[in-house]
Amino acid sequence: MIHDLVLTGHGVRLEPLTPAHAPAFDAIVDDDLWFCMGSPRPQGLAQWQAWVGSQVADPARLAFAVVSAGDAADRDGRPRPDGEVRGSTSFYDLHRAHRRVEIGTTFSARRWWGTSNNPACKLLLLTHAFETWGLQRVALRADARNTRSRSAITRLGATPEGVLRKHRLAADGSPGDTAYYSILDDEWPRVRSGLQARLVA
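That's the N-acetyltransferase sequence above. Prediction below.
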């Protein structure tokens, strides 16, 4: 959906996704980075703009571009200017009546892997979900083959809930299993403390 939510802190800014972000995605995403996403990797600017349009058009999704805010450094210690596009993430399947949401469709440029980028983004998103929206459950999922994403989700402090077999089709049309994780409102203080500790380490 079109929204105006902006979340900022710890060197990152989550701002509403727009077609203006498409050129940066085209430059930073390759096949390995897109591994296990649910759709074929967009090829070229026109396809990236179409992908952005599909994310924004989903009425149950709040899609964000992840950009640098301040003089954050990448994993090699190189400073990155304010406003540099790092990747994207989303709230989706938002059901306020049932007080739940999922976080996903997340990717970032390789130079931000292993930095404070992911815990900073998740702290911003989870804080908003639990403390502003008052939700009781935030779910995260990953293709069961994507060990890097599953490890990152586990490190957040999320609880594994199992693997749904043949839950979705992979980008190549083959059956894909989905690993589900969740964080509940009464677990949030522990998870929040863990993320804050990682960001000051």
